[in-house]
Amino acid sequence: MRTLKRLLVAAVAVSAVVVSPSPAEAHNEVCAGQIVLFTGANMPIVAEPTGVVPEVTTSFTMSMATGACSQWGYLAGSGMITGSCAKTTAFGTANGHYFSMTAVGTVGVSTGQFAGAFTFTNDETSYYSCLSGRGRKFVLSGTWLLTH
């Protein structure tokens, strides 16, 4: 748990420095609901004989499935993701605004111009389930602050 806390604190600190807007151009929009994230390749869940779960780096797309953003109404984004079904890091854009995110287990946090806290789960009912070996569809449920 300490390692998770350290990773999340480090991710917040680094991305806040990298992508913080200047105060003169900042205004905020709240987004709440569920985001569906599709990866470009299967995310692994099964450990190799060495006991290590391999990590994959691939592209992703995401869109708001339920809920909305207070001004734009919709949310769409894309970027790059690295990890497995149990642990991921990613960076990209949401409605053209930069962010980075980290998820360990089902706990996720994003920072930058699309900052928030969320649950990160695989859609176990779909064809793209991690249990089937095709972990490509993930659901992020939470609230975010989109800073323009």
Structure, briefly:
The protein has one helix at 2-19; strands spanning 28-43, 56-69, 76-83, 87-94, 97-104, 107-112, 114-122, 135-147.
Can you describe this structure?
The protein has one helix at residues 2-19, and strands at 28-43, 56-69, 76-83, 87-94, 97-104, 107-112, 114-122, 135-147. The protein is mostly beta strands. Strand 6 (107-112) and strand 7 (114-122) form a beta hairpin. The longest helix has 18 residues, at 2-19. The radius of gyration is 15 Å and the shape is elongated.
Secondary-structure map:
Elements: H1 2-19, E1 28-43, E2 56-69, E3 76-83, E4 87-94, E5 97-104, E6 107-112, E7 114-122, E8 135-147
Antiparallel strand pairs: 1-2, 1-8, 2-3, 3-4, 4-5, 5-6, 6-7, 7-8
Number of strands: 8
Structural class from helices and strands? mainly beta
Run of helices and strands: HEEEEEEEE
By DSSP (H or I, 4+ residues per run), the number of helices equals 1
**Poorly predicted tracts of residues:** 3-24
Helix fraction by DSSP (H/I, runs of at least 4): 10-25%
Rg from Cα: 15 Å
In what range is the share of β-strand residues? Answer: over 45%
Distance between the termini: 33 Å
Strand order of the largest sheet: 1-2-3-4-5-6-7-8
Largest sheet: 8 strands, antiparallel, barrel
Instruction: Based on Cα principal axes, name the global outline.
Output: elongated
Q: For the residues shown, what is the average pLDDT?
A: 83
